[in-house]
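Sequence in, structure out.
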Amino acid sequence: MPPEALTPLEEILARLERLLATSPADATDLAWIEVRRGQESTEKHRRDASDHTERTVLIRVRESGRIGLHHTTAANLSDLENGLREALAQARLSPPAFRPLPPDITPLPRVAGLHDPELAEMSPARAREILQRMASRGETGRLGWAEARVAVLNSQGRRRTVEATSAWAEVSTSRLPGAGWAAAASRSLAGLGLPELLERARQRQATGEVGEPPDGPVPVVLSQEATAVLAELLNRHALTSESFHDGTSFLRDRLNEQVFHRAINLRDDATDPRGLPIPFDLTGTAKRPVDLIAEGVALTPAVDERLAQDTGLPPTPHLVAPDEAIATNLFLLPGLGPDGELLRRADGGLWIGALERVECFDPCALRFQARTRGVRRIE
């Protein structure tokens, strides 16, 4: 069956406006997130082919200093009104909440290229055709895409809407050991650069015999794909508001200290066109560049209202749930030296093309294990 069509933004706004008008709460926040996701591959059995639609509507009310929340997947007005009543009932039974922060009135940044018509019209059949036309015999590819419509409204007058698309791709030169592999993500199909992506995978194809593993520690160079996995591992376990709330972040008591090498600079920036959308968070607060780590110094995690109250840190525009803030547009800034110099310094070491099955078994120390893929000797 074809996926359910996304609700037009005009209809989403009309329903949320009517719901907001009926709310008796002191303050009401509404968020409607609707996403159509799909993926397809050239694999023979194609077990991962899919195309489906997901919807989440969040209703948050503040009544007499108490907060009530309700999530629903329903779209019709009567179900939304029932959800509002559920949130109001929960607020009456909840303990007094922390004092809300003043609303952020920063205007939305001008961010181009959030919606790609090609991705909005993508289907499994079309994706498979693109991949088959690009790849040679024995080469495989996987393409995923998403189209989102998001609306955020509140009783203080904030209105934010966006239509956005994103895509990701993986390509491999064969199913045999020594195959080259590469991956990319973008806001548009053209931005993926599929021909260049496949060429990068071909350049990573092993050309020599399988060597013996090193006897002891050796220098390691990570590909951009493997580096992204480790950056996300650090983000999830040390830089989210939840990791600070529960005390598992090893950065909890080390902010403004040099924890990393001076070459490490990690920034979250939804305004950079190379990153993925969306330009505001769940409260409708405009996203902006936020330096999380600068020259090895840990500056800030993603900060929600509760963490701001507890620590005195300024809130950041990273709310993905009512009680959780996560940076979702990470950029690890480049170092000073060229790639060739980096490889020369790691002569005799290993180059790792990808990390899979990553498991963090000790979040407080960020100890993890993973399976490496595309390992090459550096000579």
